[in-house]
Design brief:
Blueprint lengths: L1 H14 L3 H42 L9 E2 L2 E5 L2 E5 L2 E5 L5 E5 L2 E5 L5 E12 L5 E12 L4 E12 L4 E11 L4 E4 L3 E5 L4 E10 L4 E11 L2 H5 L12
Antiparallel strand pairs: 1-4, 2-3, 3-6, 4-5, 5-7, 6-7, 7-8, 8-9, 9-10, 10-11, 10-12, 11-13, 12-13, 13-14
Length: 238
């Protein structure tokens, strides 16, 4: 009688798992469940971000907003800013002469795609006398809607055939009308040796009329008269 009552207790003890192994299994199961839930969340978030980015590109189409007369060796996107490597703009002026504007680097906001900010500006403008005016500056801003450019820092405007070399720190130029305004001090060198200094300067009539304003100082060299290129007549300002 005594042996029969003890047998079930011994059998039950054989089926019990060690306490340490049981805790380890529970901990592992919880960690695995947490990992699976986290992985699912990351997948859902990642897919959502991809859909949002693709939708943004399709709706706003930032790369199609690039100015039509603009080309670039490489294009990138950072937020709403399009970055351009070696951007080049070109067009035809009202007098039928071509112009070309290039930069080392350019940026363009997709919310205002007509404006391109440039670093390392280099431009060529065909003149109606079949000469070419070359322009350089450290930086600039080009408005493709108006074919208008703002030039900043170490601006140089040079035409070897016409015989002049202009230096200033800021200038604005309208490619269509051929007008230019320099509201910073200017220095004009002529091929014969004449030098003109002025506080401000403007160019109108496709470069045929040059006006100086403010304090004007000029040194006229007879060489300019011998070459047939008389220096521009200053128009004193206030």
């Amino acid at each position: 009688m005594t042996d029969l009552t003890r047998a079930p207790a011994k059998a039950a003890s054989r089926l019990e798992l060690p306490v340490g192994a049981s805790r380890h299994a529970v901990h592992h199961a919880r960690w695995h469940s947490l990992f699976v839930r986290s992985l699912r969340s990351f997948i859902i978030i990642g897919c959502t971000l991809i859909v949002v980015i693709v939708g943004f590109i399709i709706i706003f189409n930032p790369f199609r907003q690039i100015t039509k007369n603009l080309s670039s060796s490489a294009v990138g996107l950072q937020g709403t800013t399009v970055t351009l490597s070696s951007p080049k703009m070109h067009g035809i002026r009202q007098d039928g002469q071509p112009f070309e504007l290039t930069g080392g680097v350019g940026t363009q906001d997709i919310l205002n795609p007509g404006v391109v900010k440039l670093a390392g500006v280099n431009a060529k403008i065909g003149m109606d006398d079949r000469t070419t005016t070359r322009i350089t500056s450290i930086s600039g801003v080009y408005d493709s809607n108006r074919d208008y450019v703002w030039l900043n820092d170490n601006v140089r405007i040079k035409n070897d055939d016409a015989g002049y070399d202009l230096f200033t720190q800021h200038a604005e130029m309208d490619f269509n009308s051929g007008t230019m305004v320099a509201d910073a001090p200017v220095k004009l060198l002529l091929s014969g040796g004449s030098v003109v200094h002025a506080d401000r300067m403007s160019v109108t009539d496709n470069g045929h009329k040059i006006s100086f304003q403010g304090h004007i100082n000029s040194v006229i060299d007879p060489g300019d008269a011998n070459t047939g290129r008389a220096p521009p007549e200053p128009e004193p300002g206030p």
